[in-house]
Amino acid sequence: MPWTKCALFGGVALLLAPAAQADTLREALLQAYTTSPVLAQARAQLRGVDEGVPIAKANSRLQVSGTLGLTQSADGITSYQHGARTLTGGVNLSYPLFQGGRVKNAINAAEARVIAGRADLRTTEGNFFTDAVTAYMDVIRDQSVVELNAGNVRVLETNLRASRDRFQVGDLTRTDVAQSEARLSIARSQLASAQGNLVRSRETYRRVIGVWPTNLQPPPELPKLPATPDEAVEIALGNSPSLASVAANTKAADYDINSARALRMPTLSAVGGPSYSDYLGTRAQASGLPSSQNYLFSQTVQQSSAGLSLTVPLYQGGGVSAKVRQAQANQNAVVEQGIDIERQVIANARAAYAIFIAAGQAIGAYEQAASANKLALEGTRAENSAGSRTVIEVLNAEQEYLNAQVQLVTAEHDQYVAGFSLLNAMGVAEASNLNLEGGALYDPVANYKRVRNRFGDWSDNPRYQSVSTRTTGPTPRDEDTQPLPPDPLLGNDTPGPQLPGSLVPSPSNRDKPRDK
């Protein structure tokens, strides 16, 4: 059956359908979506890109400026040639009538970059949600690994007690006891390492999601994914926000070339405005007459003007051609970038698909291995009780069973993360696809509509207040990540693998031969 985008969108929505349980994947993603500084930063950057449109439009609007000046000749005010003392003021108006198309192309380029910015925000959302799902699954995996290793330590502690009891009655040798002690020490070190990995995963979760993970629930099943990698690639090529971004940037680069070429064209503007001059009682002196004659002259002059101003560039030092060539080179780079991104999209989709399939096959294999190792362990223990198996064989069987369980948990983690990475590679792992109910989704178009036609010079935004949460404060202390206490069975003063207690010679007999 052909794969359809609609079916995929519906599947992703089901992936995060509302649930009543606490600490679910959906709730984690909703928490991250509303409080993440990564997304807040990307949204702010897009709002900055939106402002490129009114900036470009400003060059097509009326320009008004005022001037005010006070001058006096340094040689006095008794000579007309010296200009006397004058207070001047005026208002200058200029309205562009023709600019060779540079403004129109600049506006088109700015609008194309807005489209590219929205696609970049989609890319940021998809990558961020993939990181969030990975962090969620890392915690679940490492919690399971800690539990498995803790269970293994408890089993080996029981084994060591049994080995020492059997050694007391002569059923086992000191070598058997030493092997049990060594394996318990190794298990405790593996548990400590697993606890460290869990702390790291929880800290990563808090960095990405914004809160400390507590009692995370198993994730919902992934939606049905494409049957073949070719279908996944087809969806990715048709829906990738990265490709949409580079396509819009290519259009913007084309407009930039046209805008640079327009610098060769003449510009025509309508100009005019009123002016005012006040000689401050020095008009007679400026005319070469005594100051007593000032009453014969008007001390102020007012006039208004209107006209056209045509500027025809004849030679600009080669700068225009350089700007055109520069814009062409930038456009060439964007075209090549598009091909590179297309390669990345194809590779990411195929790689995620391959990892997802491989992890699924590994899950089946590790399930069989865990089941077989469990049976082998039970048989080895029974045969050891009958005297046909050694202690080291039982220990090896227990380690193999533990390894199979850890590998199974890891494969389940890898399959889920790869599946969500495949959704992201296909462009359907964004907020609009994940059914994040509980609040309005961020609308990137709303800010554009609000600012695109603004023309006031004093219409600033209010002071920004961050919406992201901080992760300062004490770190919760979880029981499953507390340092291991000394093990009385091993006789250690500090946790961690050490020499088995029964093989450490005392100071009084350190140089004496050990019992054989």
Quickly list its features.
516 residues; alpha+beta; Outer membrane efflux proteins (OEP); 4-stranded antiparallel β-sheet; 12 helices; 4 strands
Q: Give the spatial strand order of the biggest sheet.
A: 1-2-3-4
User: What is the terminal separation in angstroms?
Assistant: 72 Å
Share of β-strand residues: 5-15%
CATH architecture of the domain at 5-62 and 99-267 and 331-458: Up-down Bundle
Structural class based on helices, strands and sheet pairing? alpha+beta
Describe what you observe in this structure:
The chain has 516 residues and is of the alpha+beta class. The chain has a domain at 5-62 and 99-267 and 331-458: Outer membrane efflux proteins (OEP). Helices cover 57% and strands 9% of the residues. The chain is built from 12 helices and 4 strands. A 4-stranded antiparallel β-sheet has the order 1-2-3-4, with no helix packed on it. The longest helix is centred in the first third of the chain and has 67 residues, at 102-168.
Quick synopsis:
It is built from 12 helices and 4 strands.
Protein topology:
Blueprint: H1 5-15, H2 25-35, H3 37-50, H4 52-58, E1 63-72, E2 85-98, H5 102-168, H6 174-209, H7 229-239, H8 241-261, E3 267-278, H9 283-286, E4 300-311, H10 319-385, H11 391-425, H12 444-451
Antiparallel strand pairs: 1-2, 2-3, 3-4
Protein name: Outer membrane protein
Main location: membrane
Keywords: Cell outer membrane, Membrane, Signal, Transmembrane, Transmembrane beta strand, Transport
